Amino acid sequence: MSNVYAKTVSINSPDNKIQVILSDKNGQPEYSVNFNGNNVVSSSRLGLVFEQQGEFGNGFNIIDSSKTSSSSRWQQPWGEREWIEDNHNKLTSSFSDGTYRFTIEFKAFDDGIGFRYTVPKQTALADTASLNITNELTEFSVPDAHNATAWWIPGRGWNRYEYLYNTTSLNKVDRAHTPFTYKLKSGTHLSIHEAALTDYAAMVLDQRRDGTLKADLTPWSDGTLVKTKPGVSTPWRTIQISEQATGLLNSDLILNLNEPNKLGDVSWVEPGKYVGIWWGMHLNENTWGSGDKHGATTSETKRYMDFAATYGFDGVLVEGWNIGWDGSWFHNGDVFSFTQPYDDFDIDAVSEYSAKQNVRLIGHHETSGSVSNYRNQMSDAYDLYKKHGVTQIKTGYVADGGDIKRVDENGITRHEWHDGQFMVNEYLYSVTEAAKRGISINTHEPVKDTGLRRTYPNWIAREGARGQEFNAWGTPPNNPEHTAILPYTRMLSGPMDFTPGIFDLAPKGLDAVNRVQTTLTKQLALYVVLYSPIQMAADLPRNYVERLDAFQFIQDVPTDWSESIAVAGEIGDFVAFARKDRASEDWYLGALTDENARKLDIKLDFLSPDKQYQAQIYRDGDKANWETNPYDYVIETKTVTAKDKLTLSLATSGGTAIRFKAI
Ligand code: NOJ
Ligand code: CA
């Protein structure tokens, strides 16, 4: 349909640096974005295609638009900062082709933009009509893609989100997961992601012509992308925009585009630190299954509870306590029982001991992707844990991408993706069922985070990237730059249960392929750099007892913050975060580097101007390097104030961790 009356509407961010332009000028909805007067997203298509109703895009014109502004702040029950500012301008435009109608809402913040589609109930559509999406037309067009650099992992791969990052020119990307982070030649940093992914398929990005990244929704097993009804709103499509790399890290855009807490009083959601029967299995010293090397025994659990009590940890994770691990557990998810312990794990005795030691038992449910088996037992399994005082469960969905097994309502077995609409709903179901019992969920092999912790604060953490476990058996293990890329990519989506703190960096020798490719103090820095309200001290107790001086930092570091500031960083090279403890006046700093040693000058102006601090510094020794000398570290103290500056010396794949204790 030709469109002689093309309309163009626009909004700016509150600081006027970002401008979003929406139009129907080429006979279809499209948008573009400018930043500081330069085009950073060129004309990009918008629209949805439905199985029965056809395309809501081409041939649709803007029929009305309205603008509002809003400025507020809200409090996080736990988080990387206590108060979050939400200042934005909003544009809502309705489109119609004369028969059907849909709206697009844009919100412009100082740190980026978000937009979403709504298909309201309308006379042309029965309220119960099926609106099955067969294509989302949304594009993100990157100008001068050959000269932009992207940090990305493949989308729709067999290993879900667990890949090392590629660093390439943007036009070399094929299909990538979000958060998808890139830097234009001008130096502007951007990251494309989504917020509030519920009852919809995850958006992967597919590069069409060079620089044109198109929404590629993960399908159901029957090929449909999303099954909805009139009244549907899509998740927010988000673009974080900043001059500095650190600007991406200091952005609250994703959380601001999520709905407020729906769970009411969530004081029962407890941040904290834990140890667990875990690394021994990854190192092959123990087994999840029964036998001589069974890790999850009553006596071993008590030993870990003693260790946790002595050193001030809140919980002990126990993996391999329940029947079903024997044989090839990766492929036999249907035989897991979530209520029946192995004979050598006495759950009553363990929970009594947990009460006595004042250390919580942390639950574990590995489903191996057999989600119907899990669903059938879920209420009994959560009830059992509740009865035993468990307030946090780590869940697992180990299965190849596309291989989640479910049995449908007709008894037919189907295989789904971890990030399709079916699993998006399944993960959230586990979280809301757990919430009814005062239990928090830490999902491994999850769907990516899109900020739902704001709405469901008991969704306390997840994996969703290569974590520490890859250092035990991954081919290859995580490289030195991995944790210098994660903050700018995966971590933009929310907390990660990375499980830092390995002290025996090379159990099979420094030359072994499988070892941790960092220095020891970089392991300490991870507690501050990789935000999570729950942090594991992942190594075996004996390795901590050997280095109690360095272990002190893990004992001291909090997991709940009143402020967080990324103070330095470049993607893939280095990063430094300063965070303030929510429970005291102390600040902490974590800085880490990739394979290159470097010096970082850090101004301490984040400290309170009227206080003195004792800086307890854990740093790489002068001869440290990750390959041959990773245990060379120095612990020293200095008295500092907000007027001081520290020069940090980071070894190759090294790090510095500092506690600023208010005097
Ligand atoms: C994968 C998880 O990421 C890991 O932490 C866990 O130990 C295994 N699954 C077994 O559940
Ligand atoms: Ca995993």
Give a written overview of the molecule.
The relative contact order is 0.09. The model has no long low-confidence stretch (mean pLDDT 97). This protein is 15% helix and 35% strand. Strand 31 (561-570) and strand 32 form a beta hairpin. The chain contains twelve helices and 38 strands. The protein folds into three domains: 3-256, Beta-galactosidase, Chain A, domain 5, CATH 2.70.98; 263-464, TIM Barrel, CATH 3.20.20.70; 484-535 and 552-663, Aldolase class I (TIM Barrel, Alpha-Beta Barrel), CATH 3.20.20. It is an alpha+beta fold and 663 residues long. Residues 278, 319, 366, 396, 398, 444, 463, 469 line the site of 1-deoxynojirimycin (NOJ). Calcium ion (CA) binds at residues 444-445, 463, 469.
User: What share of the residues lie within helices?
Assistant: 10-25%
The CATH topology assignment of the largest domain is Beta-galactosidase, Chain A, domain 5
- SS-derived structural category: alpha+beta
The shape is: globular
> Which second-level CATH architecture of the largest domain applies?
Distorted Sandwich
Brief digest:
This protein is α+β, with helices and mostly antiparallel strands and 663 residues long. It contains 12 helices and 38 strands.
Q: Topology of this structure?
A:
Elements: E1 8-12, E2 18-23, E3 30-35, E4 38-45, E5 48-50, E6 54-56, E7 61-75, E8 83-96, E9 101-109, E10 112-118, E11 131-136, E12 139-141, E13 149-152, E14 166-169, E15 175-176, E16 180-183, E17 189-195, E18 203-207, E19 212-217, E20 226-228, E21 236-242, H1 245-249, H2 253-256, E22 272-277, H3 279-282, H4 298-311, E23 315-318, H5 347-357, E24 360-366, H6 371-387, E25 392-396, E26 404-407, E27 413-416, H7 421-435, E28 440-443, E29 459-462, H8 470-473, H9 482-485, H10 520-529, E30 534-536, H11 541-545, H12 548-556, E31 561-570, E32 574-581, E33 587-593, E34 598-603, E35 613-620, E36 633-640, E37 645-650, E38 655-662
Parallel strand pairs: 22-23, 22-30, 23-24, 24-25, 25-28, 28-29
Antiparallel strand pairs: 1-2, 2-3, 3-4, 5-6, 5-11, 7-8, 8-9, 9-10, 10-21, 11-20, 12-19, 13-14, 13-16, 15-18, 16-17, 17-21, 18-19, 26-27, 31-32, 32-33, 33-38, 34-37, 35-36, 35-38
The structure holds 1-deoxynojirimycin and calcium ion (CA).
